[in-house]
Design goal:
Elements lengths: L9 H33 L11 H22 L4 H6 L1 E5 L7 H13 L16 H6 L1 E5 L3
Antiparallel strand pairs: 1-2
Helix pairs in contact: 1-2, 2-4
Keywords: Cell membrane, Membrane, Transmembrane, Transmembrane helix
Main location: membrane
Pfam family, one: RDD
């Protein structure tokens, strides 16, 4: 198998997922700092740090994660973690994912991340999300 068709394993995909989680954390931190600065700008005399509920924070993390993953997969097939690990998400025909499939895949990964563990037992190294949506993660380094 060539580099562009060889399926990625659990370790490289897991490392990429941890990197992507860190990217989402950085985006969430930037959003919080932006909220703080906005509050400071519009009310410097009455400023206090915003308190966010766990439900609101979880919802924002859910939305940011889905938008990040779906956007990256639809545009290039690579998230930041995938670039570092030399991976690309492709369709059955080795093409870039369409926006709907990328969005469905992102929702599936955020709601059911344990589906990634199926890569360790599947002969073709597919996660449960890959099996359901007909996607593949391959090594993309040349």
């Amino acid at each position: 198998m060539s580099q562009g068709t060889r399926p990625a394993g659990i370790v490289s995909r897991g490392v990429a997922a941890v990197i992507d989680l860190a990217v989402v954390g950085i985006v969430l931190s930037a959003l919080y700092v932006g909220l703080i600065l906005t509050r400071l700008m519009f009310g410097p005399t009455t400023f206090s740090l915003p308190t966010l509920s766990a439900i609101f924070s979880s919802l924002v993390m859910f939305v940011v994660s889905i938008l990040y993953l779906a956007g990256c997969w639809a545009v290039s097939g690579c998230t930041a973690g995938a670039v570092v690990m030399g991976l690309r998400v492709v369709s059955r025909r080795s093409e870039r994912l369409g926006p709907v499939v990328a969005l469905l895949r992102a929702v599936a990964y955020v709601l059911f991340p344990v589906g990634l563990l199926w890569v360790a037992v599947d002969a073709r190294r597919r996660s449960l999300q890959d099996i359901v949506l007909g996607t593949r993660v391959v090594y993309a380094r040349v």
